[in-house]
Amino acid sequence: MPESSNPDPLMSRLAAFEVVQEVLWRKKALDDAMVASRAYAVLAGPDRAYCSFITRTALRRLGQIDDLIAHCIKDRLPRKARPVYDVLRVGIAQLLFSATADHAAVDTTVELCRTVGQVPFAKLVNAVMRRLQREGAGLVARQNAAALNTPAWLRESWVAAYGRDTADAIAQMHLETPPIDLTVKSDAPGWAEKLGGTVVLGGSVRLTDAVDVATLAGFEDGAWWVQDAAARLVTGLLGDVADKSVFDLCAAPGGKTLELASAGARVTALDISEKRVRRLDENLARTGLVAETVCADARTWAPKAPADFVVLDAPCSSTGTLRRHPDVQHLKSADDVTKLADVQAGLLDAAAKLVVPGGTLLYATCSLQPEEGPDAVDAFLARTPGFARATITAADAAGLDEAVTPVGDFRTLPSFMAEQGGMDGFFAARLVRAGN
Fold first, then answer.
1. Which member of 51, 113, 250, 366 is catalytic?
2. How far apart are CA 326 and CA 57, in angstroms?
């Protein structure tokens, strides 16, 4: 766990408080919430890492933490005291779910309460923190962490799709800080040795320690880029793309674009967001890889000619990435899944028109929801003559047998490779257009 080194230890806690409020009450994505926090902006190095760790811990274990608060505070606090709950969320994340010293967690939480204008409730916060200092470990041991920390609609959907045991295993992995995976241009074993990592799934370099990747060897030289191992496998499902034309739709921030360009493909990378396209251009510049970038809506884009391969990594609920983005479960709902499934259908229909006869459309989402995976593909095939599934095999998936579904699609779960740190949840289907 990162340690706070700021001479004013309250600042990293204040930043965590502000970020938690931005996510839970103003419904901002975690990255945007950090940008919005004035306290976070002044942090640097270890203090910024500590704030990020505490914030993510509070969001990952929000169900447990709120259950503990309810155990200690029986009557609902008045609306004007709503910030007290967020003060306690940040404090309990430190006290019970980090290596922060008890006295530091208690003292800074009480001081934070005063700092954010909740002076009348400082004694209450002190009482709650000291009670949990005594009783918290025992209370946590009796909690059902997997159930408490997963919104009911998500848990029910996973139980229906994967069974209760697997749903619990997925939820348990979401409580862990994920490793950092790197995709390297070449020599994965050499880079693993140089960076103190290990090679997983035939080519990703996995780092288990929290680190600022921009400080690592090879970053400035563009020798690698950050990309979850499961995401790297998705692009590999296309096979040999050397000297083939590839449209990478909804491409930013560009992990798949970089991988395709590194494999020798002639890539056109498209995204609807100018800001995200700029980020993609920056990643291409850093790595020295070449791809044409286009800012456009894939549903209306009209290139001069179709491509041999089209990759559609469609916008989705992102429920497969909760290990890295614990804010998602607090920002998305079942209604969002339904709305996004409609968007994905429109994108699939548009993408199909961009594939040459005999070419391949690779549909992918970082979602665990069936509506954004196999259900979307089944509906597409039912309404789109001339396309068929091209069965994916374990060999296509770097030998990961469990990632191949009964109908030949690709599905990873966060609980896969749990002893090695897990992976993001991805779905992909390989669809071939009829013709020569």
1. 366
2. 8
